[in-house]
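Example 4.3 (complexes with small molecules)
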Amino acid sequence: MDTRRNSPEGRDIRYHLHGYTNARKHQESGPLVIEKGDGIYVEDVAGNRYIEAMAGLWSVAVGFSEKRLVDAATRQMSKLPYYHDFGSKSHSPLIDLAERLVQMAPVPMSKAYFTNSGSEANDTAMKMIWYRSNALGQPARKKIISRKRGYHGVTIAAASLTGLPNNHLSFDLPIANVLHTSTPHYWREAAPGESEEQFASRLAGDLEKLILAEGPETIAAFFGEPIMGAGGVIVPPVGYWEKIQSVLSKYDILLVADEVICGFGRTGEMFGSQTFGIRPDIMVLSKQISSSYLPISALLINEGVFEPIADESERIGTFGHGFTGGGHPVAAAVALENLKLIEERDLVGNARAVGAHLQARLRRLASHPLVGEVRGVGLIAAVELVADKAGKAPWGKPGALGAQVNGLLQQNGVISRNMGDAIAFCPPLIITEAQVDTLVDAVERSLAAALPQVRAQG
Ligand SMILES: Cc1ncc(COP(=O)(O)O)c(C=O)c1O
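Answer. The structure with pyridoxal-5'-phosphate bound is encoded below.
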């Protein structure tokens, strides 16, 4: 790798530790330095243009060059660049955004609470839930159930909720009181001959067994993404969420819908909860809320969550939680403008219509010798690669084929992301059918290039 003193690549290697990167390998291979954005495209320092098929990190709904978001930020920056919500202070962008989010929610919600990232929002949800259990005189009700392969972030509590080994190994996580139940991945996890419905019933049964084994009075909440994102774009089987919710309501357990990826149109409805008939007590929102132009996240809580918290804050004297940047006026103004754009341009409808085209085109790859499963809803999808279709076995080390094809895709002008052997696609919601065709053509070329390499190496 070029480590010349003044090249961006060399300086990156010298000075920057990357997230989600093999730090040793990075010293050899260096970064891809992205310089600018234009619609669904980004361009690197060498002038190469890529379709950003992950919308950054599942998040840039309106594309990478939306002037109206820049203008909204500039206006707010000039008027009031910073304020906060501690000690009953407030400001207009925060109030407007709170009102808008509560009114947009697909189930009755009472209040919005603002944070800066998905991880902080999930940490906050967990703290609110514990606080509420104490407020209700149920101090034993502190355990939280999430799922293997679920993703909820990286702070100590959120990483504990996350059900992926790389987020736990050598971090001494998960913390106590976090339990993980089964992954709703029919293609990989179903027993031979089991229907989707039967598989969903078995998973609801697993959840109930875990609750009974731990003691229902000790379980406070269940966290789940409507579609698992970073775990490999896992779309739950038919009937799954209904069956899970009937177990949760039987034992009076709160449901937290982590809508950080699914929220604001990704699945072809405004929220993933609508796509799957989920009725959450708490919703966790981030990413597409501001198209990630600025960091902002939010929790929506219903009356059953808010009321005990309000009582407890009065008993103690304050709700002892808050972030300096929570509900930042510039981020909130950008989020409001972004939500306006999503509505004005019917990007939810676009996700549904163009998403159907993406899903249909990707499903045509299912017969390719290296493709095990194509899955997805709306504008989120994954193609899982295998070396042996019947046995669903990977090519050598799990993730090797995914990394190989992901690299080929980059050479073919598409930035995607491989989660192990699942290549994910989650493009900006503004993508057109013609752009989807260009994207999927590049996937086809990359698979065609990978096949002889796989066959040559056995
Ligand atoms: C579903 C989900 N929840 C939470 C997070 C964590 O968000 P952040 O990276 O902003 O902390 C992510 C990030 O990808 C996510 O996909």
